[in-house]
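Lab notes, practical 5.
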Amino acid sequence: MPTRHGRLHLRALIARRKRAVFTDAAPAALACLAVLILSPRAHAGHEIAYYPSFYPQEITLKRVDPATAAARLAGNDLHAYIGAAPKFSGAVPRHLESVESLEGFLVLTFDPASKAFEDREARCAAGRGVIRGLTGKIEGVVLSPYPVTPFHPDYLQHLDRVEEAKVALAAAKAAPPDLKIQARGARANALAGERPAVKGGHRDVRLEQVALSALGNESGPLPGAQPSPPWTRQGWYQAYRLLAPGIGDAVLKRNVEAAYERLVTGEYKDPEERLNLERRLVSDLTSDCRRMVAGYTLRREYYSADLSGGVENVAFDGQSGLNSPIFVRTVKLKDFPWNGWLYLGTESQAKAAWNPVAGFTDTAGKLIWSALGDVALLPLPYNGSFISNRVSAEAPRPDGNNILNFKVPPAALAFEPGSGEIRLVGAGKTSAARVTYRVNASLFQDGTKMQVSDLLYVYAFAFRWGEKANPMDPAFDAAIGAATRLMRERLVGLRVVTVDSKTTQLAPDIQYTRETPVIEVYLDHGKGRPLEIAAIAPPWSAIPWHLAVLMEAAVKRNLAAFSAAEAERKNLPWLDLARNPQLQTRLRALIDEFEREGYRPAELAVRVSKDEASVRWAALKAFAEKHNHLLVTNGPYRLKTWSGDSAILDVVRELTYPWGVGAFDGYAYPSRAVITGAVREGNKVILRVDLEKVVKAQRRYATLREPFAIEAKRGLFRIRPESRYLLIDANGTVVRTGEAMHAADGRFEITLPEGLSSGSYTLLAGIFPDGNALRPAVTRLTIDGGS
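Output from the prediction step:
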């Protein structure tokens, strides 16, 4: 029997021969598109000059232990191992590549009952001594006493504080030899060295590992797929989540909470004030020393880059690694210009329920949902912002520091908290932001067409299940409440402007129509970058309204619960749309009931007729009968089969899907900048910068370094020269922030403010090609004012 590597070659040969059967009927002009498109067989023998969705035609995800993963990666029986490092018995095979991402933090926590460290200065000194005394180099651990790292998009604005913390650590005296450390976690135990872990009883300080996933929004995908707020990836936010619970001083605690609240509500007048708030917040968080960051941990994930059996075009996320939506949207097999069978492994089994509201929360589940579901906006993988995916957005910018006021049309729609009832906004309402969205609609996988009713129902769902109408209201789930809080607090109303329609003729007898709803959303918050504002309340649904209604019915009838916490609290199954046969039977009975009634919720009664509702329920029933599950989405992949430790996903080659292969290729192998010099010339600071970019040479990749030219490109993609600087006075206050100008000769120029008062200033500058803030090129320069 051939190996999997051999089977891949056999499948490639079969696929090529199958494609050759149909090429004679294609227009000759399509041949030049072969590197970008696949031309699947059409009903009349024509070829289709558009190939929607993503590269692999099938993705298999399987639970594999680390030792077996190492062997399978070495033998090209596995393309990538997600979420953990494989255990190699010897050297790592040369054909394997890896990516690093931020996994979590190492934290010291002093015992509140320890009398020896009641004094803050003594506590801080002892903590620095402990950190300095941690032993040796442990793979995947970076000892650093500051909570903002090079893996955070706001690293530049804390660079001076990072360096000051390192200087203080280097000068620290050793901790008392009798200090008792309780270590939790394998890396923490290894770092404790000669200080053995305390099993119980008294300890002075605890050293523990804290996963990054414990600090952000982990409530699940939600039907509207609203992204987490932009600040959840920032260092200041994660420092707050990590250190604020340990603050003992009441005044300091109030200051911390006040600064945090101002940051998340936008209560600052300009970018300088925002930066000072962030810096002050982290300074306060690190001053108490009851909890201290000792360092951070890195996740290393491997993939096969074998010349024939490997993968290429790999994108990853700086904080979630390969387990991110961008990975499945770029990765391709080297043996296939398109298509192919992708094999992925994870260490842990998929235990979280598969439901698109508050499920898919474990490692395997997140990866599966990245392929099954689509989100409105994707996280920008090497930054803290977003990428347009299923919506494109336009948000008017304020003029200077003035906040715009938009009149909200009285006929705009709003949603009643606790019930989700749709009502009119009414007269006299204004908002701080108006975002106009164009929704990239497509067919759902049960064949039903996305309509405005699907988009509206997501908001109604969030307002009903995310907020209690009264203390006894059963239609509430705390996980949904947490994930939708920002949207519910800031949404003033929305208006459906129009639905654009465009028909494309692919061949004489092949055409498709794509509809694009245009929707205005009014928000009471207008600060931030346009895409960050657009990410608050995008009109989008990854599932059809009838599937959301079916899940609601199951929860209301106590057949299951949306989230793990509610399932445990109510002693009910966690809602799973594929792997619970008993629940499947009950849900199919509900579908029959709703089809007979032509049931649609009250919120949609004026938009959806009984006959239209019956058609939808019939489509869902047919899908369930054909595929043996109810996970209907409009994403690029569909669940094909599954078992206890594996799942197989099929690509959906559906012509109304808006993205073709290669749409996200620009995010693979991000370019990096290298600052080679920084000098002051009059009222300007000149940065000389090189560019490191990954270039392809046949089936291999190499890093090329060259001066950062103003027209720099990587293949067909122009590299955007993003930059940022901060000017900080002797008191540590940011007095100016802005961008450097990329001059025609390739240099970056920072113009210093006129009338700069005398004194010493610190200039922090960073260059971020295409927004890549991962381990960025940063520099620090001392500037004398008044000269």
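Observations recorded by the TA: Confidence is low (pLDDT under 50) at residues 1-47, 196-200. The two ends are 78 Å apart (CA to CA).
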